[in-house]
Amino acid sequence: MRVRAAVLREFKKPFSIEEFDIGEPGPGDVMVKVRASGICGRDLVIWRGGFRNLRPPLILGHEIFGEVNGRAVGIFGAITDGTCPYCRAGKENLCVNLQFFGESRPGGYAEAVIAPAGNVFELPDSDFVKYAAAVCPLATAIHASKLGNVGPGSRVLVTGAGGGVGIHTIQYLKHLGAHVISITSPQKADFVAKYSDEVITDRDFSRKVRDVDVVLEVVGSATINESLRALKREGVLVLIGNTEGEEIRLARPALTVMREHRIIGSAAYTKNEVLEAVRLLHKGAVKPVFRTYAFNDVNRAYEDLINQRVLGRAVLVF
Q1: Cα(119)–Cα(177) distance, integer angstroms
Q2: Which end of the chain is more exposed for a tag (fewer CB within 10 A), N or C?
Q3: What does pTM read for this prediction?
Q4: For 21-60, how does the pLDDT look when each residue is reduced to its tens digit (9 = 90+)?
Q5: How would you label 86-103 residue by residue, b for 16+ Cβ within 10 Å and e otherwise?
Q6: How far apart are CA 310 and CA 112, in angstroms?
Q7: Contact, 111 vs 4, CB < 8 A?
Q8: Residue 217, exposed/middle/buried by CB under 10 A (0-12, 13-18, 19+)?
Q9: How many CB atoms lie within 10 A of CB 291?
Q10: Any idea what DSSP says for residue 281?
């Protein structure tokens, strides 16, 4: 089945808008007409060549929302085997045979996607852009907050607070009753302040904030050492992302040793956390923050993201 798609044919190069064969639906598959697809930070890492096991051509995109026979639906962004010990324990985000849309199979930067029926879920309304902008980052925040044991009154530092994950994470943290300390760029500070108790724009932010309970590390290599300096003894750093795809090095490992820091990786989210994110967005508990781009403008979207000109999430619309 041939559809129009934005095809990544070479890392760090513009996408090619072309007809592409995405295969045919097999037994148990459904064809979803894509209406909106979010651009995730993971997509940017792939675009830069940060996943060495991947080879172009690729159709990226795992934040996919659209229609099946006129019904508004979303697609769980990863396919799991459902049988491994992690899947059986309700931790399918750790499935040993996990396959992401946009990586091992064609993703949402296309007019249509073929998905297993079990990955398709109904939406409570047809505001596709809202869900494409915020379901993935909000579900990420839900999962990471659980790992960090965040609750009312927790002092939580969030790096990259003005980005797609960050802006929805700080809203969710306020929903939980946490004290939110946001690290962001000067141009995004005023907006980020709406959902923060403190906003810091300095690169050496540990000079201004100390002894936080939890760090939700969205940026990775560029900020992790400042984050660890700001973390209290026995504090938890939850590593959500590494946006540049660069090697992470601890500048002062003795600091983490002597303070008994815990560094925990956060692997996306579960299906239940996706549905919780949909529920929170539907009832307005978290407001999606995004900029839309026509599908044909995918290269402009990437240029804006790379140059930090997008507040929140960039969403491709069809």
Answers
A1: 32
A2: N
A3: 0.93
A4: 999 999 999 999 999 999 998 999 999 998 888 999 999 9
A5: bbeeeebbebeebebbbb
A6: 26
A7: yes
A8: buried
A9: 16
A10: H
